[in-house]
Design goal:
Number of domains of chain A: 2
Structural class of chain A: alpha/beta
Helix content of chain A: 25-40%
CATH topology of the largest domain in chain A: Rossmann fold
CATH class of the largest domain in chain A: Alpha Beta
Number of helices of chain A: 8
Largest sheet of chain A: 7 strands, mixed
Oligomer: homotetramer
Distance between the termini of chain A: 18 Å
Number of strands of chain A: 13
């Protein structure tokens, strides 16, 4: 359960009392108050009681009474992920490897690329690979969207997908498109961030995973990480080091999304901690 | 409020219901369940009601009913800190500077050292400096303890204090003596850890703040941090880099203790997050 | 010795042969070639021979023949540092502490501030503190410059000095004014970077030490570092965490400058490694 | 060229003069002096002259005159790597992925495991997979060694290979067996390091890549890295986080070995920086 609402006394008591009354045991609870104005909470609970399901409607109603929103998820249900990739396959490979090794609570049924030479991704990891040419940009997007929906994709991951998605595309996947940008945003937006970083002479490079919005590189940030560089790093070496940061940052963001640990509030994200339960 | 007890359903509901009933508003709540067996919680709340104080006795009683322990603290009350230091003043200076700049929710009334040449610490930071010779070890400890108690010290910080404290001393300050060890424990216990680290050829060095126990360097760890080193670092350079890690790690641990964010459970610590309230 | 020149075969051989011939023993040598076009080198050497001084003129002449520049420094000579600070004293205090603890190969004879309430810095650390009001900005700058020159200051450190220096001031201290900016440049230039960072919802904050130039926040970067933040960090908490990054990054940059380990090339810096000699 | 010898004046001059005389252009040169007693250097150079090859014998002779050792390598030659893995495939997969993506200056012709269920590694990455049972430990080792030699393997990587190699095996691959240990050595040697780390309550976990020697977990360390953990991490979660550190640390070590950037000196390693040349 994810809850976001204006802050007021008694919210935790109201939610926990309800869960208790319906026979739910709380496994993990994390809350966050922002400036005494907004309240956010994530609760993971398990039920033994056959009547336990009735709590769902009650919590949704509670959310309404609190002028907020409640989202309920079943952690057993594995989300379906679609990967979009253009030239650089390292991030996509990393997610496919994690899927193969059982480290992702999700499945990747489909990979889409404008590059036919990436077809090996499909063969190697035994997923559906689709080459969709991008000579006609809107046709490319239309066919991609159709394919994703056909595959029942619920989360779209732009794993180094160097194209801007239209507002229409994003409307089909509200808050469900994650992009990896290969710089430490808001530094070096746009194209060739490593070259930009080299020219500026920075001593640390980074990567940013964020929800995609119509304003490119302006969406809510989910995770960021960095690595030190020196004058000895050319732009090419930065890109090499950067690849390891990118894949780590993207995997973190995707994992948080799959585990329903993210609430988007205006332009920022609340990313709750992993709940510490071994599965 | 800090609570530790065996895990069972309904704990959060019981606590939050009690606070609500007595007119307390929860500012921050963090809980942790360990292996479905132990439950730990920290709640920061503020009251408007004059009757609100009665909740204290109720929460203590609740703690007993849960076969656990409840500790209640008033965050307004500033703890009194005694610093013990032998040869290396950098960590002590750092805490004194943080006190001077208003970054510590505590006061440092007294610094004790076996080195008269550190008297400048007292003058520079306007605190009581006491030189207590250590030719007679037990006499040194007896006088130190007397002085700390006389100064109303509640937290003893061993800011690079290269002596072993007796079980008797520690009994006077249960779970209230923090030591900084200049290695990444459990690596390089005992004397000269940087020299040991150099000889082993490690590529990362670190520091560890922990509660002092009779088993030297074996107490519950509060915070640790590290920095990369290369073959270019001699043992002396490691010690130089290390000083910055030590003071950072020690300050983190002291801050967590002063903000009542630590529960010790067997040999481990639960260190709750800073509560995110601007003061 | 610091050398920057266009790359060509035989440079290392020419320099080392010259040093050998004049009885110098190389303690440390580091070179860097940028894109096969530019060559940079730092050599630390010691002489036993009384005639050894003659090598200085020879190396300067060699630099000219290579169409480059050679700078010679005596590491025994301790540089004189002037600190400029406005409201936030933490960075200035850190440098003063390092000076007091013997961790800086330089001396700090003078601290200048527009804030009379920072006079305690002078008393505490026994350095000349000068309050220079800034009602008249150009008068403030003129008097500051006069004072720095009178004190024989060779390196000016803007230790959280929230004012723009004129081109005229900078001309008096070419490549010798180091500024600390409390963000990870080029992100969040200008005022209130922590507030900007909070609004953008970044997950990592940072600090940047750079040479001051007339283009504010655009000078060559010397050092940068970062720390992770979460949604739990308010802008005030970011500023608190940030203070520790700032002082670390500034100290690194100042140390590199004092040890003559920096070459500025166009808009970037070559920062050679510490030479690994215990002093 | 890698050189290790007792320190004395004139070494750099002697080497660079020789290279210059034979028409070699130095692309990168890094040296290190340890305690004024030992001298280490790595030089990367390219030749245009057809006579340039004669420098090889001259440098080897120079090494002898300096009472040291000289090793010469051709960076164009790609080393052959054999992977040994038991239960945990993540590190092996990471190296195979890097090989597939062209990020390793080496080839992996062979993977050996005692687990038949890892056969998918061979199919997925199109390399020879060999299941060698380990019921008879010495027979397992004998067959493994035979296979590695047959495949022309020059570097053996123990990518989570939970077995002790005999002195005899190691004699066949002197200084050419790299192991990844899933703790921050010398902490938590031996079995189940994450469980040990959890029990000790550390706040940072790590991984260590080192050359394998007969003393288990005591060989010269090549690279180490760490990640923070909190009380919220169970031993299983530590193992999950740890996997990302392990693969990063192992890849760093393997890369340094493949690029001939490592000199082993007694129990420590000199790991020269990447030479900054784009390939």
């Amino acid at each position: 359960m994810l809850l976001a609402c204006p802050d007021r006394p008694g919210i935790v008591a109201a939610v926990t009392e309800r869960l208790l009354a319906r026979g739910w045991n709380i496994l993990s609870l994390e809350q966050h108050v922002e400036g005494k104005k907004w309240f956010f909470m994530r609760v993971l609970a398990e039920a033994s009681d056959p009547e336990a399901d009735r709590v769902g409607a009650e919590l949704l109603a509670l959310g309404e009474r609190l002028d907020g929103t409640v989202r309920l998820h079943d952690p057993q249900q594995r989300m379906r992920i679609g990967l979009l990739v253009t030239r650089e396959p390292a991030c996509a490979v990393d997610l496919l490897v994690r899927g193969r090794l059982g480290q992702l609570p999700g499945v990747i049924p489909v990979v889409v690329s404008n590059r036919p030479e990436l077809a090996w991704l499909g063969e190697t990891f035994d997923v559906g690979f689709h080459h969709i040419p991008d000579d006609d940009r809107s046709e490319h997007e239309r066919r991609t969207l159709e394919l994703l929906e056909l595959s029942g994709v619920e989360l779209v991951v732009l794993a180094r997908y160097m194209k801007v998605l239209s507002a229409d595309f994003l409307r089909h996947y509200p808050n469900a498109v994650i992009n990896i940008h290969h710089s430490f945003l808001p530094s070096f937006k746009g194209a060739h961030p490593y070259q930009q970083a080299w020219e500026r002479g920075v001593k640390v490079i980074g990567a940013t995973a964020h929800y995609a919005t119509v304003d490119l590189d302006e969406g809510p940030i989910i995770s960021q990480d960095v690595a030190p560089v020196t004058h000895q790093h050319s732009a090419v070496m930065m890109a090499d080091s950067g690849r390891d940061i990118e894949r780590r940052v993207l995997a973190q963001a995707v994992l948080a999304h799959l585990e329903h640990r993210i609430i988007i509030h205006e332009r920022r994200t609340i990313v709750f901690h992993p709940d510490g339960l071994d599965r």
